[in-house]
Fold these 4 entries.
Entry 1:
Amino acid sequence: MNNPPLVSIVITTKNEAKNIENCLRSIQEQSYPNIETIVVDNASTDQTQEIAKRYTDKVFNKGPERSAQRNYGMIEIAEGDYVMFLDADMIMAPEVVTSCVQFIESDNRFVALHIPEIILGQNYWSQVRRFERTFYNGTVIDGARFFKKAIFVQVGGFDTSMSGPEDWDIDKKLKQVGQIGLLPDLQNANSLKSWPLNQFITESGIDLNKTGYESVIFHNESEFDMTFYLNKKGYYAQSFDTYINSWGKNDPDIKKQLGLFYRYFGVFLEQGKWKRLFRHPVLMVGMYWLRFLVGIKYIMRHN
């Protein structure tokens, strides 16, 4: 690309020394030539900041929650025409940023993009989570990750009164301005073969020799921990009432996101996705068990 626009990538952290380096390495290995890396830490007590400073001089402290961290990095610090955010346990395949810029600039309707996400891990529950996540790409369960900065600023960034549904909330604000696209994944390309993070991804349960994943984000949730997972979902559920009150309980997206039918059936059946359920019955059983447990956390959110 001639004169490629600057893309600012913001990583929010809190005691992420075990994950942050792979995240930053994946930014370093992007094929896109014009990237600004910003780390917004929340008073880590481990080596997070020290590791981050090896990769960027833009390391800041901000709290109290990830929404405030993201807004600080993406609105106040970022200088790019485009902004995106990552969690510290995410690893970008090498063509993600290039694909995002090319795709969003090819169609003026899009103000932001969803990016396909692959959950890492080899144990059964990690495989279940990876299976479940494939059904959400580009749906109202997904959340935009790559934005035109001017539009992100225009809609006011993330709502800092929420922790969890703020990803859904900003999608709804963006849809009042334009459309959110789904980044298409690339297949059968070759850049992953020499990618320095290839071995780590392979050891985390993904066979990169079978299918090209050059424009996806790998989410390193580590080997699945049920207690941690449910506690996190329970914490996020505490903000759902704030989200519902912002848009109204009869909002069509909210009825899907928090409604029984869509969350347990519709999102898994629409657009022919039901075929995947029957191809993987063992994973389907685990997925519905997780959905049931998360539903209990939602019901109990006031307790």
Entry 2:
Amino acid sequence: MSPAFHAGERAVQARVGVESRMEQLGPRVIRDFMPEQHRAFFEQLPFLIAGTVDADGQPWASVLAQPPGFIRSPDPWHLQVAAQPLQGDPLIHTLVDGAAIGLLGIEPHTRRRNRMNGVVRDVGTSGFTVELSQSFGNCPKYIQAREPVYVQAGASVAAPAVHEARELDDAARRMIAMADTLFIATAYAGDSAEAGRAGGVDVSHRGGRPGFVRVSEDGVLTMPDYAGNFFFNTLGNIAVHPRAGLLLIDFENGDLLYLAVSAEIVWDGPDLAAFEGAQRLLRFRPLSMKRVKASLPLRWGKAELSPYL
């Protein structure tokens, strides 16, 4: 039987003292098929978060959006996604047949989220299919409740402005300073035969009070890692492949910020005490950024912060 967790995830679980518990729990909750409720959940969403890796091994977090119904599940092992990458999204280059992909279906206003990792198949002009490797649910912790509404493109046909740089600009810093939500893509880079279905790409959600991601003068980002489900999919990937892709959304105007970063886990030290409730810290050093104006065709209601905060 393929393991539920790869070596990086197991190493982090062992360090925290939950490896035995996860060894028992993992095979029960991480499935090689999608339950009926997960299939129905994906089909009702107006957006989908995706994680992929480029030719240099750099993970990227992306977002796809269409009116509800653009995702279909013809059977428990496949999702069909009738959408194309947004202007400027790294997914334009990474979405190819045979590529590993991680998907996060999240419904912020109900605080539901489900994960699905797999392989890209049948890329075409109408979209693509994902063949499942793993499927599992996530708890509602740290999700800010806000409801997305899909908005049709206006009369203007001008493409959104794409700003690219090696370092954070002032607009990117402002987005990070105001953010209460972040999406992070990571990838496994160890022995694929040993990892089995637990390998590949993962994309996850992180949330906190506005400003929970802090930026130093030299552009280094620090984010708290709160208590979660102890799967350590993100941290386990970083332990063996210390890179990540971050995605931040301006929920008022649809601006998107994509960051390619190197990643480090901070286990202890004085910096940890500065983040209330943090079990660990994640530290990111930007390698490149893309900031795309008014790219996402969704608008969101006022946020209700997670009660866990």
Entry 3:
Amino acid sequence: MDFKKLLTRSLSGIIYVAIIVGCIFGGYIGLSILGILLGILATMEFTKICNAVHNINFSLLYLDVLGVVVLSVSFNPVMPVFPIILWGCIMIVRFILELYVKNENPVRSLAHSMLTQIYIGVPLACMSATAFIMVPKVILIVFLMLWISDTGAYLVGSMIGKHRLFERISPKKSWEGFFGGLLFNLIAATLFCYCSHSFMGLHSNIFQWLGLAIIVTVFGTWGDLIESMFKRHFNIKDSGNIIPGHGGILDRIDSFLLAMPAVTVYFAFLYLFA
């Protein structure tokens, strides 16, 4: 293995993790910064890969970025206004502006814009909502479980993986790797359960923690496959190169983009029926 590439990958990975952990420990303000940062980078990256053979209209791109950013802070208590109302106004302007930009395919352009809001903006809004309903450090647990699941899937899959999980989309993923990641997460959830009170002030029981591990692993895997589907459609290997050795920001948060809405629904279910 190339030592230089390994060192670059390791350092960039450490910086990426440090930024996420640092923002989450920064409370609601830090979480706002994280949501805005992820929203801007992911939207620009997604727009770039979806318009690989078309010219990007930056006026429309800026509106899409603004819409995602507003969604990312839509439930944050530090915001002095109602961001969701502002987001509605941005979307109205986005539709109207399509009349004046002389786009060759306005339906395609609007479809991409709405997909961006749903695929990137809604998960970030769910992150904001979950942090507001629970505590910001819950988001760290979601990221940790995603990283643990990925690590477990890689280790187990590389050693004994034989049965393909979804060969049409991701030939390297295996059922053995999936269950390995799930096992790692169930163990982690058990450990989190016993330290959760001192760490987050949560009072969830072991079954709720195990349920969270299952939700994160299953939907995180689907999220990874969905981004792989996009990349296969556009015939690209990585969504970008902003994180040396790891690819683009979408390559790093693809699991999060589907797992976070599922986690929000899960916590809402627990809150309503507890």
Entry 4:
Amino acid sequence: MADMWDGMACLVTGGAGFGGSHLVAELVERGARVTVVDRDAIPGKPLEDMGVDDAITFVQGDLREPETLEAAFAHGPFGVVLHLAADPIIMNSLSKPASVVDDNVRATTMVLEACRVAGNHPVFVFASSGAYYGDSFDPEPIPETREPRLATNLYGPSKMAAEMIVRGYGNTFGIPHASCRFMNTYGPGDRHASRLVPRALAQLAAGDSYDFGERDDGSTRLDFLYVGDMARAYMSAAEHLAAGGEPGAFNFGNATLNSVRDVAERVSLAYDGVAREPAFRGVRTGPPRQRRLDVTKAHEVLGWSASTPLDEGLAATVAWYRAGVPAA
């Protein structure tokens, strides 16, 4: 379905952000007519960095406000709605959990309701998370069928609740839907210095001590997915639904575990060839957390697989940073 995007009217929520900007750029390149809704203005955002801000229709506003969605859907009808808008910062889910749940659950419901009222039943692709599964200490890949476990913050439960709403609207009102569960995404455009790679780059550029604080002891092992592979994943899910494929959830990841210490060391080498020793000052109180997703379903059903090795993706991220786009 390589040509389905040519002229396709698409709505991307959160499209001015890190992951959304890469998706929007890919859609524009494929000929889609893209409307972006984002709470933040474009200037200074990744969407402007990628040079596609003039090729889209932009609506600034909060998705929880009816007038925002009315303004967005005035540019429809949409064939595809890709809902990426969320509060993805784990620390926010600890400091202001009610706000994060409201952002991630109520806003999703509002977008789905706008799709229902629109009446044309657009394909609906939801940005979920590997955090859906809760804490994991097992290195074995997690399949989509595994039940969620207890989490240590409200981010994962907020995504789980939003997924249930997506399924409920989809099954009740006939909206084709897919939930995309992603692992730790990194790449050019990420300014969230609370995350590992942007934090490493900010410290390296400033000449600060290579210190990652007390949240981890460096032993946590995760699957890191390049943002370009994530953009292709969203589109693969939408293509599947547009072709009449079964709705459901899909895992996306690189299928490889790397410790956060190892990734920090690789960022240092990619930055200037210096092998710095990162400081992780957390105290381990049990077995290390480990989480990677089984991506067999995405490969077999969608024909998707990650194509960017970690070192290649880190090199691209460092090149973006060195081009003069600082992490905030």
